[in-house]
Amino acid sequence: MKFCNELETRFRKESNRELAVPMENYMKNNFSFLGLKTEKRREIFKLIYEQNKAEIKSNYRTIAWELFQMKEREFHQVAIDLLVKEFKKNYVLEDIQLIEKLIITNSWWDSVDTIAKYILGGYLLQFPSETLKVIERFSNSKNMWLNRSAILFQLSYKEKTNFEILKSECEKHKHSNEFFIQKAIGWALRDYSRFNPNGVADYVNTTSLKPLSRREALRLL
Fold first, then answer.
1. Residue 64: its pLDDT value, please?
2. What is the dihedral sign for C-alpha 8, 11, 15, 19?
3. CA-CA distance, 57 to 42, in Å (whole number)?
4. DSSP readout, 76-140?
5. Of 139, 67, 74, nearest to 100 (Cα)?
6. Pfam families, from UniProt (predicted)?
7. Please, which pLDDT band fits residue 37 given cuts at 50, 70 and 90?
8. Is domain 1-87 classified as CATH 1.20.950.20?
9. Number of C-beta neighbours around residue 145 at 10 A
10. Is-contact 165 126, C-beta < 8 A?
11. Alpha-carbon distance 167 to 164, whole Å?
12. Which residues pair with 72 in a beta bridge?
C-alpha cells in the first residue's frame, strides 16, 4: 500500500530514540516506539492521508490491519485514528470481525479503550440489533480485553447508555481479580454517573463491588 509505505518512510525519518525510551517504559515495555509525540504523529498522518485519499477511501480496512500488524506502536495508533475517521456511520455488518481482531491483537489499555469507545461503540450504534449478541460473546470470552470492551463500549453514549446492559456487565465481572476489569467497571459507572447519579449510587451501594471498582465509580458523587 502506497499510504503505508510513505507513512513508514516518514515515521522512521522522524524517529527519536530519546523520546521512544520513556514511551516504551510507560507502556511497561510491551511495545516498541519510534518516539513520535502525538502532535507530530497526527501531523504526518494528516499530510500523507491527504496525498493518498483515494487509496485510503477504497482500502481503509486493509490499510488499518496492515498498520496494526507492524512492530512500532505509532503504526497501531495511526490505524485506530484512521478507522475512527473513516468508520463514522459507514460500517458494514461484517466489520465486527475486524473490530474483534483489533481488540485482541497487540492489546493494551491504550488501544483497547479507544477501539471499545469509538469503534465498537460506533458499530453498535449503527447496528443496535447486534448489541446483545456481540456483547454477550465478548463478555463470555476468555480474552480479558474483549471482556473490558464489553464493559466500556457505551462510554460515548452518555445519557443514551443502556444502564441495564452496563449493570449486567458489572454483575458478570464484579468478582474478577483482574486490575483492568475492576478499573473498567469503576470507569464505566463513574462516566455514567454524570447522567444518572442516583441510579449509579443506588447500584454501587447495593452491590458487592471490588474496592477499586467502587472507589472509581463513586469518584464524582
1. 98
2. negative
3. 18
4. HHHHHHHHHHHHTT---TTHHHHHHHHHHSS--HHHHHHIIIIIIHHHHHH-GGGHHHHHHHHHH
5. 139
6. DNA_alkylation
7. very high
8. no
9. 24
10. no
11. 5
12. 32
Residue with cell 510491551: 30
- Nearest Cα to Cα of residue 121 among 134, 108, 110: 134
- pLDDT at position 153, please? 98
pLDDT at 207: 97
Tens digits of residue pLDDT in 44-63: 999 999 999 999 999 999 99
Q: At which residue does the C-alpha cell 463514522 appear?
A: 88
Residue 28: the pLDDT is: 97
Q: What distance lies between CA 31 and its chain's CA centroid?
A: 17
- Condensed to tens digits (0 to 9), the pLDDT of residues 63-101 reads 999 999 999 999 999 999 999 999 998 999 999 999 999
Helices 38-51 and 53-68 sit at what angle, rounded to 10 degrees?
130
Integer angstrom CA distances of residue 165 from 69, 73, 184: 32, 32, 14
Q: Select from 2, 81, 88, 83 the least CA-distant residue to 46.
A: 81
d(CA 170, CA 176): 10
The three cell numbers locating residue 216: 472509581
Spatial separation of the C-alpha atoms in residues 78 and 49, rounded to whole Å: 10
Identity of residue 153: F
Type of residue found at 151:
I
The torsion angles phi and psi of 218, rounded to 5 degrees, stand at -95, 5
Rg of the chain over all Cα atoms, to the nearest angstrom:
19
